[in-house]
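Problem statement: downstream parser choked on a complex file, so we are re-checking the raw output for the (R)-mevalonate run. The parser issue turned out to be on our end (a line-ending mismatch), but while we're here, posting the original submission so the record is complete.
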Amino acid sequence: MPIPLFERAEACGKVILLGEHSVVYGHPAVAAGLPQGLCLHAEPRARPDLPITLAIPQWDLDLELRADSEHPVARACLEVLGHCDGPVTGWALRGTTCLPARAGLGSSAALTVALARLVLGQDADLDDVVEASLAGERVFHGEPSGLDSRVAAQGGVLRFVRGAPAEPVALGGPLPLVLLPSGIPRSTATQVAKVRARLERRPTIIRPVLSALAAAVDAGIDAIGRHDLDALGEIFSVAHALLAGLDVSSAALDALQAAALAAGARGAKLTGAGGGGCLLILPPADPAPLLAEFRVHAPLSVEVHP
Ligand code: MEV
């Protein structure tokens, strides 16, 4: 028999509402879990010495977790399994998801959290699950803040500061969001490195930009609590401009952001590492015309509830 796994485990996807990148430098961020991010199922293979396989058809993933693999997903998964004293052979893992991969919606954190839960159990201690997930996230992202893993494990809407317990955020009402995939994949590690390079080159300019992003987080949480969607939309758009100042937007994201505002959005910003991935839109009261305008981008409508 291989080392046992639970049959099934789940993790949330995530959308960062405000505070990406500045969170790396100890500032707060606010993010929401996207329920049903990823569900992993485990079945024993015919022989316990066969390598673990991982198939997630929606992400075009089908690989063996071999110790000598250079595939970052295989390396990250083996780090998570090693961290939890889980099996390294003998299982076939299969994932189902509605999340696009590499779109800034926390696909890697969902994978590492769900995998940790296959070993530790769906109801395992959140801190243990987050620590195990981070062992894998480091393979993907170098030095992650921990925000993605925390939201993937805990769900809900959270105010997160690196190294501190995450605080649930009170919502004054349902939060309608539209996610617009730009179709451009990006690397979180590259985007984080770009910000660090600009901070090192221009510290006196970039430090205040990071502080302004932190102020946007707390103003955004206040607007969420009062259900003032117009204020939140304006804060989203300001945050987009500040993130562009950190060099993490792109011509495609800027064009989509301007088009979203022209189509009546209350506000819009890049979400996650930027460079590509998704645009996060706070839609107008009637989102139908905006959704129709962006139909070719396959927009994703989400409502976050109190
Ligand atoms: C990536 O989803 C969020 C970043 O802030 C990086 C991190 O928090 O580790 C860009």
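For whoever reads this later: The mean pLDDT is 96.
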